[in-house]
Amino acid sequence: MLVRAIVLLAVVLFAGCEIFDRDDEQDIDLNDVPQAAMAAAQAAVQGIEFTSAETEVEKGVTVYSLEGVAGGQEYEVEVTAEGKVLEVETD
After folding, report:
1. Bridge partners of residue 28, in order along the sequence
2. Cα–Cα distances in angstroms (integers) from residue 56 to residues 12, 41, 83, in the given order
3. Looking at the DSSP assignment, which residues form a beta bridge with residue 68?
4. What per-residue confidence (pLDDT) applies to 21?
5. DSSP characters for the chain?
6. CATH number of 25-90
7. Could you tell me the CA-to-CA distances from 87 to 66, 78, 79 in Å, in that order?
8. What are the residues whose beta carbons fall under 8 Å from the beta carbon of 64, sequence distance 6 or more?
9. What is the arithmetic mean of pLDDT over 70-90?
10. What is the rounded CA–CA span in Å between residue 8 and residue 1?
11. Per-residue pLDDT tens over the stretch 25-72
12. Quick check: 52 and 67 in contact, CB under 8 A?
């Protein structure tokens, strides 16, 4: 019985960590985005002008979400501090 309780507690704690990990978004100034991340995001969408940025930790990796406009279209580019583009979304 005690073993089941410990296992259940461990599962709840690990699941809880993942939930909190995803909700850790913080707005940041565009000037605080690492140069490699900004360069990669700009290269991902030609002519983009970024308007806002936020950061969060996903599975232990800091991810920068940059929002901007290019050609009248809104974009969100997710990139790591090292400059790896993870996702490009349009609205």
Report:
1. 53
2. 22, 16, 15
3. 50, 75
4. 47
5. -HHHHHHHHHHHHHHHHHHHHHT--EEE-GGGS-HHHHHHHHHHSTT-EEEEEEEEEETTEEEEEEEEEETTEEEEEEEETT--EEEEEE-
6. 3.10.450.40
7. 11, 5, 7
8. 28, 33, 34, 37, 41, 53, 54, 55, 78, 79, 80, 81
9. 97
10. 11
11. 999 999 999 999 999 999 999 999 999 999 999 999 999 999 999 999
12. yes
The whole-angstrom distance between residue 36's C-alpha and the CA centroid of its chain comes to: 15
pLDDT for the residue 66: 98
- Other CB atoms within 10 A of residue 70 CB: 15
Report pTM: 0.74
Q: Which two tokens stand for residue 8?
A: 């259940």
